[in-house]
Structure formats: C-alpha cells, structure tokens
Write a structure and sequence with these properties.
0% strand; elongated
Length: 139
C-alpha cells in the first residue's frame, strides 16, 4: 500500500474515532441533561468559571451542542472530504486536530488535570500530525 493511502486510512480512523466519540458524548448529554446518570453533574460547578454560566451551563444541553458541532460535525465533514478525495481533505484533518486540541485546552482551564483530557489532547496532536503528513504527501 502506498504512503498516501496509508495516511488517508489513518485520517479516516481519526475522523471516525473522534467524530463518533463526540456524537456519543453529546447524545449522553442530551439524554440526561442533569448529568446524574453518568455522574457528570459533579463537573457543573467547574463551569462557573465561564461567562454566562446562568444561561448556558445550568445543565449539559449547551455543552452537548458545542461538543457535537465542534468535534462531531467537523470530523464527519472531514471524513466525507477524505472519502471523496477532496483537495481540502488534508487541511480538514489538520483543522479537526487543532479544534480538538483547542477544545481540550479549554478543558484544562476549566477542569482539574485528568487522564482523559490529556489523552484526547494527544489524539488531537496525532490527528493534526496525520493531516500534515497527508498534505505533504499530496504535493
């Protein structure tokens, strides 16, 4: 298998993995907006650091929408671009990785340091690197 196909497959993996994870996470937030079932309600006090807490962060609906849009929809669009061999596919993979790293950076500011956030920051860096390799191989 040539290098470009290998990088495209890795890009597909990252887009699916992160996109499906974001979709599942946001669906969990929509199913139980209080966070009691998933024990996420313990995180709500940390949102008090953010502006407009009384409007957007009384439950997990807004964070669920934000997660779905920022990391779900973008990765599914990237997946479509990769599969259609669109000229901006590599750029979309890099952009999705950067978006994930920015998302996790905000989590580092809001929440205490934790394993999952650190792991997903690494995933974002790997996705960005994969997108960069994809772009370099297209030239």
């Amino acid at each position: 298998m040539n290098e470009n196909k290998k990088i495209a497959r890795i890009s597909i993996f990252w887009s699916l993995f992160i996109g499906i994870g974001a979709l599942c996470g946001s669906v969990m937030m929509f199913i139980e907006p209080t966070g009691k079932i998933w024990e996420m309600y313990l995180l709500l006090p940390y949102f008090q650091k953010l502006p407009w807490t009384d409007i957007f962060f009384q439950n997990f609906i807004f964070p669920g929408i934000a997660l779905l849009l920022a990391n779900g929809v973008t990765n599914f669009i990237s997946l479509i671009l990769i599969c259609s061999k669109h000229r901006y596919a590599a750029f979309s993979v890099m952009a999705c990785g950067i978006i994930l790293m920015l998302w996790i950076t905000v989590q580092f500011v809001i929440f205490p340091l934790n394993f999952m956030s650190t792991l997903y920051f690494i995933f974002g860096a790997l996705q960005t690197w994969t997108g960069y390799k994809y772009w370099k191989n297209e030239k």
